[in-house]
Amino acid sequence: MIVGLIIDLDGAKECPADTPVMGRTLAAYPLISAQACKQIKRHYLVTDSPPVKAVGLQYDAVIIDPPQGETHPDAAARVAHGWRFIKDDVKTEGSVKLVALLFAHAAAITTETLDQGIDLMLSDPRLDSAMTVTRSGFCHPRAAFREDGERLAPFITPAPAPQEAWFPDLAATVLRPRCLDAMGKEGPFPWLGANVLPLKRDGTCPVDHRWQMPLLAQWLKDNGVPDLAAVMEPQPKPQPQPKQDRR
C-alpha cells in the first residue's frame, strides 16, 4: 500500500494554509495531487485548523489531530505522529510500501511529480527517499556570509569549486517506511534517510509571505492548473431593458 501524508504547520500568521490562491486554498493543492494520484490508496492530513480540516474532508483526507500537549507546531514531531497513526490505521490491511510526504504550504505540486517519485522508488529498492529540489544560484552556499564581529565573513572558507546547489522545496518526498521508523530529531529533514534521489524541477519554496503568492499562482498556471478565482467572483446581473415610452 502507498499512502499520502500532508502536514499543516499551523500558526502561520501571514499565510495560513487556508489562504486563497487562484480560487482554492493553499492546502487544497497538495490534497488534490494526493487524491488524484492513482498509486496512493489513502491520504492523511495532520492539522489543528478547522478551515483546513474542512478542506481536507472535501478531498477525502483522513484527518489527524496534532500530538496532545504540543506547544508549537514542529514538522518532525507531526510527521512522526502522523506515521504512528497511519501504521495503526492500516495494520489490518497490509504493509505500507511508500509514504508520499507533502506540506500544506508547499502548494507547487502536481500528480505527475508524485507519480514520478513513486515510480522511481518502486524501481530501486536501495533508495531511502526521493525528494523534490529546486536550483537557486542566488542562494548558493558559496554566496553566503556569516557575522564576524561587526563585519561579514564568507560562510564557507575556502570557497569550494563551483557546482550546482539544489534546495529542498518540500513539495513532495516519497519515503520508505524504514526512514520514518528510524527518524530522529536532528537536521532539518530527519525523515530522508541516507540514500536520497533528487526530483529536479523548477519549483517554488513553501509560501510563508503574501509576496510569494503571485509567484505560486504563476507556477500553477504554467503547470496547467486552472484559475477558479474569476469563476467564483460574483458576476453582474443582467439589467432589464428600459420600458419604451408609449405616449
Question: Can you give a write-up of this model?
Answer:
The protein contains seven helices and eleven strands. It is globular, with a radius of gyration of 22 Å. It has 247 residues and is of the alpha/beta class. The mean pLDDT is 89. The protein has a single domain, classed as Spore Coat Polysaccharide Biosynthesis Protein SpsA, Chain A (Alpha-Beta Complex). A hairpin with a 2-residue loop joins strand 2 and strand 3.
Present the secondary structure layout.
Blueprint: E1 2-7, E2 20-21, E3 24-25, H1 28-36, E4 42-46, H2 50-58, E5 62-64, H3 75-90, E6 98-103, H4 111-123, E7 129-135, E8 145-148, E9 151-154, E10 166-175, H5 177-181, E11 196-201, H6 213-222, H7 229-232
Parallel strand pairs: 1-4, 1-6, 4-5, 7-11
Antiparallel strand pairs: 2-3, 6-10, 7-10, 8-9
